[in-house]
Amino acid sequence: EYLKHGIYVLSIKRNNETQVLSDETILKQGDVITVYGTRSDLDRLVKEAGKALPESLKTDWIFHGAGLVVGLLIGLFVIRIGDVPLTLGAGGGALLSGLLFGWLRSRNQVHGNMPLAASQLLKDLGLAGFVAAVGLQSGLQAIQTIKESGLSLFMIGVVVTIVPLILSMLFARYVLRYDNVAVMAGALSGSRSANPAFGGVLDKAGNSIPTVPFAITYALANVFLTLLGPLIVGLA
User: Fold this and answer.
1) Closest by alpha carbon to 17, among 205, 211, 216?
2) Could you give the C-alpha distances from 21 to 14, 34, 54, 207, in angstroms and in order?
């Protein structure tokens, strides 16, 4: 694709997705354009089109560290309604901070660099560590509960976990008319605060589309759990 004397557009990526090169292609802020040409022509293009993204294997720890701090501060914020404390917790704070800093990164990709291999390694280690921690913390307790109460309590837990998800999926598909599987799966995993499920959804989707519905339902689930938990226990 010919852009200007000595400059050739090789590819255009938007949110890590390659766009079709044609005369009708419209560039948007945050698009990453790979071009080929002489140094003088490239310098002229950068002055007119935006900023050059240098190739680097280093991680911008200042940017990511700031995101972690903001997420923790959001998680520490507590609103009290009577005697009931409402908070997003560290998980909800990290999600909101991730959305904010991800948006900032999309607007100015000079900051927040992290090599894809390093990012994938952190995702895999984080997911594996989470599953291992939950298993070590709850596995023995689950076995003891089954020994004391039999399989009836376990099966009730299975039903209580699965049935709301099925009803939510049917409601979203046939009442709300959602046909985007990535959005639906992200919302369902967030409603159960299921980080391993969300990791699997991201792998299958191949993009970050499920992040927004997951963050919204995750935050709502944490708030309603904190609000309704004492009420249900009181009624019982």
Assistant:
1) 205
2) 12, 12, 23, 20
Please state at what angle helix 116-149 crosses helix 195-205, rounded to 10 degrees.
140
Residue 89, φ and ψ in degrees, nearest 5: 75, 180
Cβ atoms of residues 21 and 45 within 8 Å: no
Q: What is the pTM of this model?
A: 0.58
3-state secondary structure of 101: helix
Amino acid at 68: L
The packing angle between helices 151-174 and 181-191, to 10°, is 140
* Residues 135, 80: Cα–Cα separation, whole Å: 32
pLDDT (tens digit, 9 = 90+) per residue, 30-87? 778 888 877 887 888 787 777 777 777 788 889 999 998 998 898 888 877 777 677 7
pLDDT one-digit tens code per residue, 150-183 = 777 778 888 888 898 899 888 888 888 888 888 8
